[in-house]
Design a protein that fits this description.
This protein is α/β, with parallel strands linked by helices and about 500 residues long. The chain has 16 helices and 26 strands. It has two domains: about 280 residues, Aldehyde Dehydrogenase, Chain A, domain 1; about 180 residues, Aldehyde Dehydrogenase, Chain A, domain 2, CATH 3.40.309.10. Pfam families: Aldedh.
């Protein structure tokens, strides 16, 4: 069902082939801080996904997109300009639909423009290789786009996680099909409105639809017409995507779950460390793939750390983005509050010691929303589910260690390997330990240092491939070798 008029903030439509597309299935968008209905959206399913694939294929075959790097660079720069113009609107819709406090929403939105401009630069400077392999023969190695790229985005940071995959895909020359979840439908429509502003963007290069059931996403992953999948989300879903993509040997980039260890040595300056470590737990209400979930603290400083960190967590002010004094917003929905609370209850029943109980907010006006106060538990058994399984909420554990080797062993005792953080004044020690930590990103005396020019991604069951940085384009391209026989040898025989 195509609709000629643009979407409004009250009813979000899908954007396919440069046109707004509705659906017979309409769902509501909710503000998780108040549970007020903020709009409706058209649910995109298999039909919408297929239309998006067709539009993307047409854009790659019938326009100059694949072959005109100047056009791609110009579009990326124009997108950056458009994001700058629409910055306030993006921040507002993000904190309204996603629940982030304004500080966190601003942080997310402000990551987008540098990413778009960085990959515009990558387009302009990308060069292949030429090898004079033997007299009379020249081999040229050039990057070619893999084809239509499917980008599947989670709800927790929908704006930057869209751009993080979209920017390198566009730089590579791919056309894209972007699927966002229903919980981000208004964000998706706002992004689409911004994409539609770019007159230089060929129709069908970017296609966006919302899909809460997952049927559309499954269609993209299974389609032979989509040779590239870039997915951010849970490890369980990532495994399912890899299995579905396997029959077609697709290029699959996966950034999956994490269980970030924060190793704190005795010589750590707690005055400097604690505010950042607190932020690692509370940013995005703990709904972040690199949330600091495991505090691994050396015995000599553990008691002081425990006391001061507990005081900070207990003082965290949960509240809506409308209250500028709020430190942490809600979880994405009430079901998540119930799920996270059960994780804490189970851990306590299994022997975890409560330092800060936290839990659902039930005693104020905030009880209408999906608010959960931070929880802090000390554990001695590293095999406990609360240590091993991703919580995706503001819940953190404390484990004590004596020796450096023990800290490394505790940090690596996980199926995950996305991020890790080391805190010490001894730089030599930190640099000695960092390569031994089984994680794609290791931060020393900081946390969450993510940028458009540095690769990010995980090891073990935290994923495959890298996004951001030069390597991000690898997920969307293949190297084509073109060999030319110039006839030099024949000429020498004359």
């Amino acid at each position: 069902m195509n609709i000629d008029t643009p979407q409004t903030s009250r009813h979000a439509l899908n954007w396919i082939g440069g046109e707004w597309m509705g659906s017979d299935t309409i769902r509501e968008s909710i503000n998780p801080a108040t549970y007020e209905v903020i709009g409706t959206y058209a649910e995109g399913g298999i039909e919408t996904a297929q239309a998006a694939i067709v539009a993307a294929e047409r854009a790659m075959s019938d326009t100059a997109w694949v072959h005109d790097r100047t056009l791609r660079a110009r579009v990326l720069d124009k997108l950056a300009d458009a994001f700058e113009r629409n910055r306030d609107e993006l921040i507002k819709i993000l904190y309204t639909e996603n629940g982030k406090v304004q500080r966190d929403a601003t942080f997310e939105v402000d990551l987008c423009v540098p990413s778009l401009r960085y990959f515009a630069g990558i387009v302009r400077t990308e060069a292949g290789r030429v090898v004079d392999s033997k007299p009379g023969r020249i081999a040229m190695m050039v990057r070619q786009p893999m084809g239509v790229a499917g980008i599947i985005v989670p709800w927790n940071s929908p704006i930057i996680l869209t751009i993080r995959s979209l920017a390198p895909a566009l730089a590579a020359g791919c056309a894209v099909v972007i699927k966002l979840p229903g919980k981000s439908a208004q964000v998706a429509a706002t992004l689409s409105k911004i994409f539609a502003e770019i007159t230089e963007l060929p129709r069908g290069v970017i296609n966006v639809f919302t899909d809460e059931t997952g049927d559309g996403a499954k269609h993209i992953v299974a389609s032979a017409k989509v040779p590239v999948i870039s997915f951010t989300g849970s490890t369980a879903t990532g495994k399912a995507i890899a299995l579905s993509a396997a029959p077609h040997f697709k290029r699959v980039g996966l950034e999956l779950g994490g269980k970030t260890p924060m190793i704190v040595f005795d010589d750590t300056d707690l005055d400097l460390a604690l505010p950042i470590i607190e932020m690692s737990v509370t940013m995005f209400a703990g709904q972040f793939c690199v949330t600091g979930q495991r505090m691994i603290v050396q015995e000599g400083i553990a008691d002081e750390f425990c006391k001061r960190f507990a005081e900070r967590l207990a003082a965290v002010k949960v509240g809506p983005a409308a209250d500028l004094s709020s430190d942490m917003g809600p979880l994405i929905d009430r079901e998540s509050v119930d799920r996270v609370n059960k994780v804490v209850e189970r851990a306590i029943a299994q022997g975890a010691e409560v330092i800060v109980r936290g839990g659902p907010v039930t005693d104020s006006l905030l009880s209408e929303g999906a608010f959960f106060r931070p929880a802090f538990l000390e554990v001695t058994d590293p095999a406990m589910p609360i240590v091993q399984e991703e919580t995706f909420g503001p819940v953190v554990t404390l484990q004590r260690f004596a020796k450096e080797q023990e800290a490394v062993a505790l940090a690596n005792d996980s199926i995950y390997g996305l991020g890790a953080s080391i805190w010490t004044r001894d730089v030599s020690k930190a640099l000695r330990i960092a390569p031994r930590i089984q994680a794609g990103m290791v931060w020393i005396n900081e946390w969450g240092a993510l940028g458009e020019d540095t690769e990010e991604g995980g090891s073990k069951q935290s994923g495959l491939g890298r996004l951001n940085g030069i390597a991000a384009v690898d997920d969307f391209t293949e190297i084509r070798t073109i060999t030319l026989n110039s006839g030099l040898m024949d000429a020498l025989k004359v």
